[in-house]
Amino acid sequence: MNTTTAATQAKVTVATIRTWCRIGAVAAAKVAGRWVIDTASLARRIEIGARRKARKAKPVTLTVEALLALGGRRWQKNGMDRIYFNNWADFAGLELTRYGSGNISTASLGGRGIANSRAGRIVGLVSKLYFDVLDGRLHIQHAGADEVEVRYLNGDRECVDLVARTFAGVRAAVAAL
What we know:
Layout: H1 3-10, H2 14-23, E1 28-31, E2 34-37, H3 39-54, H4 64-69, E3 73-77, E4 80-85, H5 88-92, E5 94-98, E6 104-109, E7 112-113, H6 116-125, E8 126-132, E9 137-142, E10 147-151, E11 157-161, H7 162-176
Antiparallel strand pairs: 1-2, 3-4, 4-8, 5-6, 6-7, 8-9, 10-11
Helix pairs in contact: 1-2
């Protein structure tokens, strides 16, 4: 089975399938520069993923200590107590590399390549990500709607909820501590 068929069957991206092949998560061999994936091995991997999803997720409690350990910076003034994050894009799964000039050289969202100019616009949408210690909630200040249309380099288009994706990234990072 090829990577495209495997990705469709597993309901993941082709890049994820290639990673699974590289790290040995599924049995696969390269033939003429393309991955050929063992169907039984892929079925086992899909089953493992389904079992992990089926486990009841423990509720994640956002604490001051955990958020500071993630790189947050505490700010207290005029009766307000907040923890600000400068790296909101990391939590959203937006990966950027930059030239020495600061311009974006490569960009991906959730492991899938996107245009550098599009990544620059996405970065410019969010101005602040912070946790309000007093109300115990995450807040994000952004321009426009929560969802942003993403065009991947392979031509696919998708609407991504940037706020939900960022909040989920923060919760996942706290859970991983």
